[in-house]
Amino acid sequence: MPPSSPRGRSRDEETRAEGPSGPAEPSKEDQFVQLLATCQHRVFFYLLNILRNAADAEEALQETNLVLWRKFGEYQPGTNFGRWACQIAYFEAMKSREKSLRRGHLFSDNFMKMLAKEGEGSCDHLETRRSALKRCLSKLSEKDRQLVLSRYREKATTQSVAEALGRSVQGTRQSLHRIRMALLTCTKRILAAEGRT
């Protein structure tokens, strides 16, 4: 009788469950979700750089994600998923532009292409800055960190934050300015130390 595993299953049973070469490969859905999670911010900032409107960029991002899933079979494993996602996002940005044209918001094709090219070069840079900013946020006092995070919650304003904290709007504005300057200085210092600007 073969020896049992600590979980009460025989080694033969575990081998059959895992397959002859070890644990089962992640499903297609799992692979997609993992890859998508690594580039959502990058693709969003790319779209924002083109569309210049957060709501339009968010809508285009959702459409991009749907297309990425439908075309996932075309993705070549091991290649740059983020760059592939940005290529698809570009076409979704063009569709968003067409909607804007119908609403009377006009940008020329050349202008949009220029923004897209600029966005490709800045995606990685934005991610680097975001990482540096996250490190700087962790260095703030708990009070300052909560204040600045409260200000940038959805639909929050300086006035709404001040009222929630029982502080004056002017005092809250001054505190936020001080914190922003501290974050800017910290971020620049980190990027300079890493040889980035």
Q: Detail the poorly predicted runs.
A: 1-19
**What percent of the residues sit in helical stretches (DSSP H or I)?**
over 70%
Structural class: mainly alpha
Query: How many domains comprise the coordinates?
Result: 2
Q: What is the name of the CATH architecture of the largest domain?
A: Orthogonal Bundle
Strand-and-helix sequence, N→C? HHHHHHHH
Biggest beta-sheet profile: none
> What is the first-to-last residue Cα distance?
65 Å
Q: Name the overall outline.
A: globular
Describe, in plain words, how this protein is organized in 3D.
- By secondary structure, the chain is an all-alpha fold.
- It folds into two domains: 27-122, Rna Polymerase Sigma Factor, Chain: A (Orthogonal Bundle); 140-197.
- It is built from eight helices and no strands.
- The chain has helices spanning 11-18, 28-51, 54-70, 81-102, 109-139, 142-151, 158-165, 169-193.
- Helix 3 packs across helix 4 (81-102) and helix 5 crosses helix 8 (169-193).
- The longest helix has 31 residues, at 109-139.
